[in-house]
Each structure stands twice: as C-alpha cells, then as structure tokens.
Design the sequence.
C-alpha cells in the first residue's frame, strides 16, 4: 500500500516540478481571474450574458467561454468587455494581481532598466514630467513612482 | 492560506490525491486532463489568495446544509468534477473528489448521489478537526 502511494506521490511531484506545467498553471490562473471578475461584475450589474455579448460586440457563447475560463481572448475584446462592465483599477488589480494602496493609487512599479533602454541614474526620459519620481535601486531594477496622471 | 490534502494517517488514505492520480498519470496524453489539472491548481491558488472570501464567481461555492465548499470543474462535455474542501486555521483542506455525471435518470438519483459524496467529505472534515496533523502538502 505504502509503495503504491509513494509511486503516486512521485508522479504528482514530478509534474508539480515540471516548468511547462507551472507555466500552464500561470496561464490558467490568469484566465480564471478574468473569468471570476467578469462573472462577479456582470451579475452585480444585473446584466445577462446575451446583454453583455451585445454590449461587447461578441456572442453569448464567447462570454460563456470567458466565464468558464475556456478561452484566451484578445486585447480588443478584453477592452470591450471591460468597458461594458465599467472595470475600475480594483478589477484590473484582481485580474493581474497587483496591489492598489489605500489612496486608490497605482503603486510604484519595478522593472529592469534595460526595458527602457536607459542606464541607471540617468533620469532623462522623453516625458520627464509624467513621472513624479524615478529612483534607482541597487541592482538592476528601477522603481517608478506614481504615474501622476493616472491617479488624478 | 495554504492548500493541503486531507490524509488519514491511520488508514493511509488520501482521498483527493487518490482521485487526482489518474489525471496526473494521463496528463501528457490527454488535453482534457491537462486542462482539468491546470484549472484546478489555478482555482485553488485564487481561493487561497482571497482567503476563501466569497464571491468566488462560478468556479467555487458553499454547499447548503454542510460546512463545506466545492470547486466546480468540467472534465468533458458530459462529466463534471467536484472537489470538496473546507477551511480551518489558515489551511484549505481538500477532503474529497468525485466525478458527477451531467445527466441522471431522475433528480432524486442526483440528490442521493451528491448527498452521499457530501457526507463522505463531511466525515473527513470531522476526522481532520480531531486530528489536525492528518494532512499532506498539496
């Protein structure tokens, strides 16, 4: 019995440590977060799936598949669904898993300097006024404070 | 909140792990099983992040008449999967899993079948409460 259980445990552990499996879980989690948010907001607004489909210029079958996390949708449809459901920053944060602070502001974001093709300690970006503050970190991340326009 | 399998140390019985093992074994050969498993991991992650606070949309919900919750998954067009769990001291404990046919000969059959499964899960829940080390990492 114990030998049988150990064999089962090995199969499960091997798969859980498989990178491809982990990537697929990440993809599924994003679809599930979106499905959850669309379903909850739609029901809270008292909108049926056919009505949402009409507003988002798609079909009820697609909305159903989105809510059953069966489909990866494109940015254009995502935008139309979000607009139809009046998605707020809170909804986006629930989907993408970032935090909003108590002032309902989008927090600082850290990302590699190379993404902006600038060197650390070089604060000269094209639209410097857009960024309230740029601070370099030890290695190799740059933290951008609040995008002031977004939080007005 | 962390997810764990309920595991009866006296009988060496881990119901949800045993239920899921055929899906893990067939993972590489079956798109259905791959989808089911990745969705299950994703849903459990979401429930843990949100500390099981409703609303959880259409993917999970409370079971009326029991101190249990169910995760709702679809295996294929004709078969649904239910994983029953409860939350205890910052743990999400996976108690029992079963396949649920989408069609029954009568609604009474459906109620009987599901209620039997809920009772099994509830029994596991009571054993766990008395033996808080009866678990394995999910």
Sequence:
């Amino acid at each position: 019995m114990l030998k049988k259980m150990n064999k089962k445990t090995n199969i499960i552990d091997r798969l859980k440590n498989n990178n491809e499996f982990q990537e697929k879980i990440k993809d599924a989690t994003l679809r599930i977060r979106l499905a959850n948010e669309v379903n909850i907001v739609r029901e809270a607004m008292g909108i049926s799936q056919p009505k949402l489909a009409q507003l988002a210029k798609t079909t009820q079958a697609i909305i159903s598949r989105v809510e059953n996390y069966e489909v990866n949708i494109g940015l254009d449809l995502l935008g139309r669904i979000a607009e139809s459901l009046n998605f707020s920053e809170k909804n986006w944060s629930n989907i993408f898993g970032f935090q909003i602070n108590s002032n309902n502001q989008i927090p600082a974001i850290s990302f590699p300097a190379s993404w902006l093709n600038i060197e650390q300690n070089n604060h000269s970006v094209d639209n410097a006024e857009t960024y309230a503050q740029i601070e370099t970190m030890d290695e190799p991340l740059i933290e951008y404070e609040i995008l002031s326009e977004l939080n007005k | 909140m962390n997810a764990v399998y309920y595991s009866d140390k006296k009988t060496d019985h881990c119901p949800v792990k045993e239920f899921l093992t055929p899906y893990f074994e067939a993972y590489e050969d079956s798109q259905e099983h791959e989808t089911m498993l990745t969705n299950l991991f994703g849903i459990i992650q979401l429930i843990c992040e949100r500390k099981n606070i409703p609303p959880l949309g259409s993917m999970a919900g409370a079971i009326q008449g029991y101190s249990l919750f169910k995760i709702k998954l679809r295996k294929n067009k004709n078969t649904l999967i239910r994983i029953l769990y409860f939350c205890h001291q910052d743990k999400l404990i996976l108690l029992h899993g079963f396949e649920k046919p989408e069609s029954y000969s009568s609604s009474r059959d459906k109620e009987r079948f599901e209620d039997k499964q809920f009772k099994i899960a509830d029994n596991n829940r009571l054993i766990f409460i008395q033996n808080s080390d009866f678990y394995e990492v999910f």
User: Anything to note?
Assistant: Confidence is low (pLDDT under 50) at residues 118-152 of chain A. The helical segments of chain A are 2-16, 19-44, 49-55, 60-67, 75-84, 89-96, 148-151. The interface with chain B takes residues 1-2, 5, 8-9, 11-12, 15, 21, 24-25, 27-29, 31-33, 35-37, 39-40, 67-69, 97 of chain A (CB under 8 Å). The radius of gyration of chain A is 21 Å.
